[in-house]
Amino acid sequence: MGSQGVVFITGASTGIGKATAMLLADIGFTVVGTSRNPDRCKDVSFPLVQMELTDTESIRKAVNHVIEKHGHLDVLINNAGVGISGPLEELPIEAVKNLFDTNLYGPIEVIKCVLPHMRHQNTGKIINITSIAGYSGLPFRSMYSASKSALDRATESLRLEIKGSCIQCCTIAPGAVATNIAQSRFHAPVLENSPYKTIYGKSLEVMNTHVDHGVSTNMVAKKIYDVMCIKNVKPHYTVGSWLQRFSVHLKSFLPQRWYEYMLAKFYNI
User: Fold this and answer.
1) How many CB atoms neighbour CB 230 within 10 A?
2) What is the mean predicted confidence (pLDDT) over 215-232?
3) Domain 6-266 in CATH: superfamily?
């Protein structure tokens, strides 16, 4: 893909989105990123447009801005997302709804806005950033795992629906990445009278440690670029530590009880 490629990246003001946008801009791509508050971002080398994933009109305006300014949109990287943790029993339903609005329904709306333009230009690539957490029901990350798993399945369906076109789509699932998601995600508090107090507290410590020692955002950005350069993409790719990537395959051949035991040991519960 040459320097004329236009790449649209959601959630590009921090973390994986920012690292990917900066890498692609340095290589020579035309990059447009999105942020809920682009005026607050002063240290980026690419343009940011305002977009709110929970607002369909905001998404439409952002996509139309790219088309009006550049005439085409070659690659969509659906990166923006939020985290959540807590016992399923104690998660406020409004927090769960907000999670799915951002991690699933928002990306779907972006895809719906982008596809007609890609179909008109007879080319395009859609890369949905999911998570290795989406391959399993992780303890105290039930809704995060569910939202990412849902985007995985939606991507598989979309691949079949656009099979007769020149548009491709896939997912890239990172494992633990050293970002600020541990500080920014919603997490239910550890309640003194909760039956989950001890095991949830231990699991939170494990989660935060994994993030602190996760792979760099630059490593994920490089993986995204590598996938962009593949002529015919596979449905799913992973990036992260060897153990986390291998865990995806473990589930397919280990008995379910063994796999659950392994997860329980991993999360110290």
Assistant:
1) 12
2) 96
3) NAD(P)-binding Rossmann-like Domain (3.40.50.720)
55 contacts: CB under 8 Å, gap ≥ 6: none
H runs (alpha helix) in the chain: 15-27, 56-70, 93-100, 106-121, 142-161, 181-184, 197-212, 217-228, 242-253, 256-266
C-alpha 253/C-alpha 171 separation (Å) is: 22
- Of 105, 135, 144, 259, which residue is the catalytic one? 144
Give residue for tokens 């303890």: 139
Tell me whether residue 144 is one of the annotated catalytic residues: yes
Q: What is the pLDDT of residue 1?
A: 45
Q: What is the pLDDT of residues 30-60, one digit of tens each?
A: 999 999 999 888 788 899 999 999 999 999 9
Q: For residue 202, what are its two tokens? A: 């231990």
Q: Which whole-number Å values give the CA distances from 128 to 70, 197, 254, 255, in the listed order?
A: 22, 35, 28, 29
**pTM exceeds 0.85:** yes
> For the chain, how long is the longest CA-to-CA vector?
59
